[in-house]
Design a protein that fits this description.
The structure holds two protein chains of two kinds.
Chain A lengths: L2 H8 L6 H16 L8 H13 L6 E9 L5 E10 L2 E10 L9 H11 L8 E5 L2 H4 L3 E5 L22 H21 L19 H17 L5 H12 L8 E3 L8 E3 L6 E4 L6 E3 L1 H8 L6 E2 L5 E2 L6 H12 L5 H28 L6 H6 L1 H17 L1
Antiparallel strand pairs in A: 1-2, 2-3, 3-5, 4-5, 6-9, 7-8, 10-11
Chain B lengths: L4 H19 L5 H29 L1
Helix pairs in contact in B: 1-2
Classes of the chains: A alpha+beta, B mainly alpha.
């Protein structure tokens, strides 16, 4: 164990350095009642123009600056950056002081840079970790055309996640699997991932650090104890599998988190990279297979993320990535994903809302109901174990 | 006799739906999203709050 690892483990939570700083910052702000006050559109636009003036050569103009809906941990704005001979459609995402889980903008930016050109993602332009720029860490990326869910022939949703219907599904499903396979097979050794701690292959580093995040989040945020959380935590600690191959992971790979062109059925961008990390591919796979995201097809067979049957998902993934899928590890990461979803939905979200550290307080309280659903799923699995 | 919590929630929901939501500018995307979440929360409260005491104590 290195000195750095010893220091991190000493406080009981071996959380990655960048994320540990965000945890500390959360506690500091919460203790002094440092809330995020609402920002007017004009204030944010002014900050954006000041930020760009230090980064864009020559004259420029910000046009059509508007607040966007959606997003669980960001204030998002779209705008057009017009320069002498070019015009770019861009998105500014300003982090909430605390979202529904701890994330770090530099990591997200580096993931976008590492994957841009490999799979469809928004082009990363600039990142700011200086609170003088936007008040909070922020990221500017390209705006990608497409929709997150069908707007025409909208299928009747039978699950919690986005449904695509029989016409779009066969177009989207192979791409959904292929992009994940390419991401996990990617050799990231020459990418700038300085915002990440690098887990050693054939150890439990990656899972130890991941468990530390959710354990710390629960301990610091939960408004009350919960027996299922305690049982899940114990089971996860006792059954940690070794990570044979360290992959770049998306962390939130599922239906609803990508854009697609409705006419062609082409996936235009994989979104929401803030939970990305270096770890076991089974984590992303199990997450995309979470009960709740998908629904049965007309013959009653479950479609993971509303798109693909399990056998097809695994066979195509293995063929494209060259990486094997271990069903036992899938089960472990199913429990891990349910665990962190519960920690976020019924621990961090309601606490963040209560502490007035987000403008998404109503949503965070509302979606805690989904946490109750996941608690039920955890109970079902842990009872078998 | 004062109105019950359910009656008050129902009237708040009605006014929210019929008066406040339509008055929001169509391009106020974020505000509309938050308003719809508030509406969903009203519905959740109406569905559950009368059972909450029993759930907690039984």
């Amino acid at each position: 164990m290195t000195t750095q690892e010893k220091a991190r483990a000493a406080d009981g939570y071996p959380v990655e350095r960048n994320l540990a700083r965000r945890f500390d910052e959360k506690l500091r702000r919460r203790s002094v009642g440092d809330h995020r006050e609402p920002q007017s559109l004009a204030q944010t636009r002014e900050k954006l123009e000041r930020f760009l003036s230090g980064r864009v050569d020559g004259s420029f103009e910000v046009q059509d600056f508007a607040r966007l809906s959606g997003g669980g941990a960001n204030e998002s704005y779209s705008f057009r950056l017009v320069r002498a001979e070019r015009s770019d459609e861009l998105v500014l995402r300003v982090k909430a002081p605390v979202g529904i889980c701890i994330t770090e903008v530099e990591r997200e930016f580096q993931l976008l840079r590492a994957t841009h050109g490999l799979i469809p993602v928004p082009k990363p332009y600039w990142v700011s970790t200086d609170p003088d720029d936007f008040g909070e860490p922020a990221l500017i990326s390209g705006k990608v055309a497409g929709v997150p869910s069908p707007t025409q022939n909208v299928p009747h949703a039978t699950g919690l996640g986005t449904a695509y219907g029989p016409e779009l599904r066969p177009l989207l499903a192979p791409q959904f699997v292929e992009h994940l396979a390419r991401l996990h097979a990617h050799d990231w050794s020459s990418d700038d991932l300085s915002g990440f701690d690098l887990p050693r292959p054939n150890t439990t580093d990656a899972i130890d650090w991941r468990l530390a995040i959710w354990n710390r989040a629960w301990d610091e945020d939960a408004l009350g104890p919960h027996l299922t959380v305690l049982l899940a935590r114990q089971w996860l600690a006792e059954n940690r599998p070794v990570v044979d191959h360290v992959s770049l992971l998306h962390g939130d790979y599922r239906n609803g988190n990508f854009l697609f062109d409705e006419e062609s059925g082409e996936i235009t961008a994989i979104l929401d990279w803030e939970l990305g990390y270096l770890g076991d591919r089974h984590s992303d796979l199990a997450y995309a297979m979470l009960p709740g995201w998908g629904h049965p097809d007309d013959n009653g067979r479950y479609l993971n993320s509303g798109l693909v049957h399990t056998d097809t998902f695994i066979a195509d993934y293995e063929r494209i990535s060259g990486l094997s899928v271990d069903r036992e590890r899938l089960n472990y990461y199913l429990v891990l994903n349910l665990y962190w979803a519960v920690v976020s939905l019924i621990g961090t979200g309601p606490r963040t809302a209560d502490a007035r550290m987000t403008e998404l307080d109503v949503m965070y309280n509302f979606i805690s109901g989904l946490g109750g659903y996941f608690i039920g799923e955890l109970n079902r699995i842990l009872a078998k174990e | 006799m004062v109105p019950t919590v359910t009656q008050q929630l129902r009237s708040m929901r009605r006014r929210f739906c019929d008066t406040i939501l339509p008055a929001l500018p169509p391009d106020a995307e974020f505000a509309r999203e938050q308003a719809n979440l508030m509406l969903a929360t009203f519905d959740w409260l109406l569905d559950t709050h009368e059972h909450e005491y029993r759930y907690q104590v039984v």
